[in-house]
Each structure stands twice: as C-alpha cells, then as structure tokens.
Amino acid sequence: MTAQSLQFRHATHADIDALVALIESAYRGDVSKQGWTTEADMLGGRRTGADDVQACIDRPRSAILIAEREGGELLACAHVAEEDGAGYFGMFSVNPALQGGGIGKQVIAEAERLAREEWSLPSMRMSVIDIRDELIAFYERRGYRRTGIKKPFPYGDERFGEPKRDDLRFEVLEKPL
C-alpha cells in the first residue's frame, strides 16, 4: 500500500462500532494472533468498548485518527490526546491481516504530526506493557525511548481485560517531537 492511498480523518460517533471491532481484532482472541500486536496470551476479555471510544472522541484536545483506503475501508486507528503538556498515543490498532506492511508507521507519523503541528506539543508519550519486548523494540526504532517510569496494571478492572499473568505493568515510552 502506498502512502498516497492511505487517507486520514478524525473519528466520529458513527465510527464507534467499527473502531471497537478493529481494536478488539488487533489485541484479543484468535483473530489477533494473525498479527504481531496480539495480547491474547496475556489478557482475555475486552480491550475497549464503545464507552471508551466515545469518551476519546468527545474529550477536548483528543482525536481518534482513522486510516482508511479510498472508499472508506477502515485499516487502522490510534488515539491521540494532550496529557500533562505532551501528546499521548494509544489505542493503536492495525487490521491483523495487514500488519507488517507499513500502515502502522504511517499512522504513528500522522499522530506525531497532529500533536506537533496542530497542538504544538513538544513530545509524545505512550504506555506499553513492559514485557512486550518486540512491541517496545518497534517503537524504539521509531525514536521512542524507555523512560523507566512504571505504572501498575489495573488488576481487577475488567475494562482493561482479564489478566492471564500476575506480572503485568506498564512502562512509559517518550519521543521528542
């Protein structure tokens, strides 16, 4: 897929169901195992819900970027928001059958452009489960660095999934923009 054929827009309420389906497919269940971003071996249950997606859309200085082909086929998404004077990048999802083809790199670049050019933010941060070495390496190749800041995993809060391990926690990654 060429960069010219990938189009970006901000999600609306009409996109919520399709976004939830995409995000769930990228992280949970057997379908997610087609791609390399799966969390299915670490977490069961839901990854997100319509309530989470709507809150991201409705929040000030927050957008869910949608990447699609001409004709509106949803390929990928990411949540970008301002948090504590920096950009926050999360809810990053690429259709598992299309992972590894460069779509994700374009989504990250667009998210960074939004935070830098439209919101004038100096850096982008994200929280990644710290045992996801391959995923952290992917972000490091894009200029993100481990900060050493660890955050506890919200065990007992099913909105974040049902843990299959007891050693989960998040690490904050950051990149100057």
Outline of the structure:
The protein has 177 residues and is an alpha+beta fold. It is built from 5 helices and 9 strands, in the order βααβαβββαβαβββ.
Describe this structure in words.
- The chain has 177 residues and is α+β, with helices and mostly antiparallel strands.
- The chain contains 5 helices and 9 strands, in the order βααβαβββαβαβββ.
- It has helices spanning 16-27, 29-32, 50-58, 103-118, 133-141, and strands spanning 6-10, 43-44, 62-69, 74-83, 86-94, 123-129, 145-152, 162-163, 169-176.
- The strands form 2 sheets. Strands 1-3-4-5-6-9-7 form a 7-stranded mixed beta sheet, sandwiched between helices. A two-stranded antiparallel sheet has the order 2-8.
- The longest helix has 16 residues, at 103-118.
- It is globular.
- The model has no long low-confidence stretch (mean pLDDT 88).
